[in-house]
Every structure is written in C-alpha cells, then in structure tokens.
Amino acid sequence: MTLPNIGRPARNALLTVNITELKQLTPFTAQDILKLHGVGPKAVEMLTKALEAEGLYFAEKSELPFSTPFMVVGDLGCDNAPKRRVVRDYLITSWMQDQAQLTKCLSEEVTIETTNSESHHGLEALISLRSVSPEQISSLEIKQILSHGKYASAHGKVTKHDGSTIHFAEFQTFESHKKDARISHIAIY
C-alpha cells in the first residue's frame, strides 16, 4: 500500500514525518495532513481516494485535546500515564508558544536550564528560548517520552516550512510524585 503519485512537494512533506505507506495516514485527520508544508487539498483528495480503495480512512478527530497550527506525530499515546500526557502537552504547547495551555503544564516559577548552563525562570523565558515561531513550523515529531516518579524526558524534532530541522532533548522534573503535578524544572539540550 504505497502512496499514490501525489506530487513531489506532498510526498516530500510526508517523508519529513516518516510517512511512506497509506496505512500510516490512518491515525491522522485530513486536516492534520494539510498542516504539512507542501500538502494541499488536491493531494489530500488523492490520498483519501487511495485510502478508501484499500478500505482505510483518515481519522475522524485528532487524538490531541487541542488544535495545533502544525502537524504533530510520534509518541502521543498516554493512556494510563498522566505525567507522559503533561510532557506531551507541554512540548506541543511550548512550540505553539501558547501561554494559556502552558500554565496547565508548568509551575508558575518553572526553571529552565540550557546547554550553556544559564538558568531562566517563568513561562515567558521558556517561550523566548524557542528559536522559531509557530507559523514557521510544519511538523513536530515527538520521538519518545519517558516518565518515572517525578522525572521525565523527551526528545524529538521540529521541521520548519523551509525543510530545516531542530532536534531537541529535554529532561523535566515535576513538583511532586502526584498525578496532577506540574513541571517545575526543565533542562533543554
């Protein structure tokens, strides 16, 4: 079940998020796929027809609890892991630079440590450390999230509309071991 001939820009856009086969499209909505730079309505129409011919369909709704301006792929399932969900939502909303959503994930006095051993404090400092505006992002790939007790880590990749990428690895510390704890410290690499 290979992808139909949807044109080079659309095919390349799908490749940036490691989609090479039709069945890999089924977790996403058509609207998610349209967020990729290079994928337009004609390509989505062709993909929809190819999926239907195989008895497959785009998802009816996104598995994320909020809308994003870019496509999000990867390690998104959080079933019985509330801290994984917090880290997932924090990663997405930090790249979205959405302060309202970030307050649900981060303590008010969150501390951010960067590779040059500088410490920054608060939501605004975190947002200023994101080197790209949400409008420049085509996709966010969360490759892995691990959590245990009051600690978590995650790594992934941001792909910009111009095709350049930003790889990241982060370590998070929560306020406590409680399920509803927010992130109080972040080390960004």
Describe the fold and architecture.
Keywords: DNA-binding. This is DNA-binding protein. GO terms for molecular function: DNA binding. With 189 residues, the protein is an alpha/beta fold. It has 2 domains: 8-54, no CATH class; 71-188, Nuclear Transport Factor 2, Chain: A, CATH 3.10.450.50. Helix content is 28%, strand content 28%. The chain contains 6 helices and 7 strands. It has helices spanning 8-16, 30-34, 41-53, 82-96, 99-102, 123-129; strands at 71-74, 106-113, 119-121, 137-148, 151-160, 165-174, 183-188. Strands 1-4-5-6-7-2-3 form a 7-stranded mixed β-sheet. A hairpin with a 2-residue loop joins strand 4 (137-148) and strand 5. The N and C termini lie far apart (38 Å).
CATH architecture group name of the largest domain: Roll
Q: In CATH, what is the class of the largest domain?
A: Alpha Beta
Shape label? elongated
Portion in strands: 25-35%
Question: SSE string, helix = H, strand = E?
Answer: HHHEHHEEHEEEE
Number of domains: 2
Q: Ends: how far apart?
A: 38 Å
Q: Radius of gyration from the CA trace?
A: 18 Å
Fill in the CATH topology of the largest domain.
Nuclear Transport Factor 2, Chain: A
- Fraction of residues in helix: 25-40%
| Major sheet characteristics | 7 strands, mixed
Overall SS class: alpha/beta
**Helical segment tally?**
6
Overall mean pLDDT stands at: 93
DSSP E strands, number: 7
Which consecutive residue ranges, at least 5 long each, have pLDDT under 50?
none
Spatial sequence of strands, sheet with the most strands: 1-4-5-6-7-2-3
Protein name: DNA-binding protein
Keywords: DNA-binding
GO molecular function: DNA binding
